Amino acid sequence: MKKIIAVLMLLVSLSFSKPPAPKLIVFISIDQMRSDYFDRYSSFFTGGFHRLYSKGIVFTNADLNYATSETGPGHATLGTGCYPAHSGILSNEWIDPITKRTIYCVEDSLAKQVDGNGGGFSARNLVVPAIGDWLKASSKNSKVVSVSSKDRAAILMAGKKPDYVFWYSRKNGAMMTSDYYMNTLPQWAKDFNASGWIEKNVPDAWVKSLPDSAFASLGPDNFTAEPQTNGTSAFPHPFTAGKKADQIMGTPYGDKFVIDFAISAVQGEKLGQRNMTDVLCMSLSNCDYVGHGYGPDSHEQLELLAAVDKGLGKFFDALDAAVGKDNYVVALSADHAVCPLPEYNAQFRNIPAKRYIYADDIKPKLDSLSSLLKYELNSSEDVIIKNSFINYSTAQKNGWDSLKVEQELTKGMLAIDAFVGVYFRHEMMSTAPSAKPFMQKFRNSYYAQRGEDFHYLIRENCIISSKTTGTTHGTPYSYDTHVPLIFWWNNAVSKKIAREVHSADAAPTLAKFAGFAFPKTVDGVPLKEVKR
Ligand SMILES: [Zn+2]
Predict the structure, then answer these.
(1) What's the pLDDT score for residue 119?
(2) Between 390 and which of 130, 356, 361, 453 could a Cys-Cys bridge form, CB atoms 3.0 to 4.6 Å apart?
């Protein structure tokens, strides 16, 4: 009898105790992925996106909650749970307030490139730790590995002291790193680079895989605001012999390359196959490249997403086999979303959208504003510097206090059709209530030590471009900031959750789920729906 009771008690305690911590955290960013791609295209997904969307915890209203919707800040926020105001990565590039030199977010004059041609980059400009650093603080033998085609994506998700960070060298058609991380690639990575992946896997052209009916709700494949080759932007998109290493970026083959490399990393480093938790960050960049070129409503974007879905399906199958289905957790989000092609919005959605060509529509007006302020102040020095800083002392010397110069600058900027708001340093550093739209998003983006004297808000649904084709992101409007946020683990009870959450919540949610501590200073919060 005693034995039976003991067995029963054991069974009861087993059934009520939490399942063990995951052995692998898989943190995926799909660069430029819009949340609405899942609503629009889920019927075409059968692989990895399907697994996540149909069986995971899906937050349908996830927002960046900051203004600079770019790749650097996006990946830093995903990795660290901190807004740009605290991660220090306020934009992809910023102008140093003292030297006025442009600084790239992952540039590092001390780091040297290793096994490729892509610059000496590192996480030196990131001022807070990321999820991998949090894990290693309590589990020093845990491994943290990050892969992407883009240096800034891989580096900023991985944090300050990961084990390995890899990005793509277009010149070599291979994954590379810098000596901030390691002096030579591990053998499995060298083997992958030497495996002839491109020759084996990339055909002569990127062709359509979905039936014509899949594109019925979209505009034409050949559209004037998409980049034209030989008079058309339609499929197929041929590769140039000898240039595939460069040209696979901007097609699904760029992401397939990175996914296969990530599978090699899981096998080579035995990620999730040791008696502890590891972290694998993977950012797939081609949604961004294709989106910039062809826009979010293009046939190319649907084809790219369908290919990523298949690639992720293969990736999860590989994890099921190597790590075990019960032993890993996945989070998927994005660094930012994107504005539709203005021409597409105007033609097919009847939205007043406009493309401003920088050289024709913007620069001459900014130049004349600059000249006007100089003239009005009778100043020999520029009053506006690099369209980002204000020469307050010159203005002061000539009789304008800071309020007056800001008023005049605002008046001049708002007289330019493309701009609808100007935000000054002291406003972005303040916590006082403000009537200006998106002020909190601008504040969450503003890292004062690296910040400019003013930022501006572009008119909604409009872009400033150097070209007559393509589109971009970077504003606080929801089309740029509404991103997917999905968590999946085996046997999760699938839900769609509509309350507003933020991409900064992803990292603390994963840490809580896996049972390790994170700094109290992060901006994100663990999402209560994600629990074992
Ligand atoms: Zn982009």
Answers:
(1) 74
(2) 453
Cα of 31 to ligand 1 centre, how many Å? 7
- Give the model confidence (pLDDT) of 402-420 as tens digits: 999 999 999 999 999 999 9
From CA 209, how far away is CA 476, in angstroms rounded? Answer: 34
- Per DSSP, what are the bridge partners of residue 121? 107
Q: What is the DSSP letter of 332?
A: E
Same domain, residue pair 393 and 504 = no
Q: Is 240 among the residues known to form the active site?
A: no
Catalytically annotated residue among 60, 68, 71, 177: 71
- Asked whether the whole model's pTM tops 0.85, one would answer yes
Q: State which residues form the domain around 391.
A: 355-458
Determine how β-strand 102-104 pairs with β-strand 419-424. Answer: unpaired
Question: Which residues have CB atoms below 5 A from the ion given as ligand 1?
Answer: 288
pLDDT bin (cut points 50, 70, 90) of residue 116 is: confident
Q: 233 to each of 9, 229, 293, how far by Cα in Å?
A: 67, 6, 10
Compute, in angstroms, the gap from residue 472 CA to the centroid of ligand 1: 6
479 CA distance to ligand 1 middle (Å): 13
CATH number, domain containing residue 406: 3.30.1360.150
> Does residue 388 share a domain with residue 421?
yes
Strands (DSSP E) along 204-315, which ranges? 205-206, 237-238, 278-284
In-domain check, residue 89: yes
Q: Is the pLDDT of residue 58 over 60?
A: yes
Q: How much is the mean pLDDT over the chain?
A: 96
How close is the Cα of 236 to the center of ligand 1, in Å? Answer: 23
Give distance in angstroms: CA of 294 to centre of ligand 1. 12
- Residues 5-14 have a mean pLDDT of 52
Ligand 1 mean position, distance from CA 75 (Å): 12
Residues 426 and 313 in one domain: no
What's CA 374's distance to the chain center, in Å? 39
Could you tell me if 380 and 305 lie in one domain? no
The number of domains in the chain is 2
Question: Do 277 and 417 belong to one domain?
Answer: no
- Is residue 88 pLDDT above 80, yes or no? yes
Residues 283 and 137 in one domain: yes
Give the relative orientation of helices 252-269 and 286-294 as an angle to the nearest 10 degrees. Answer: 170
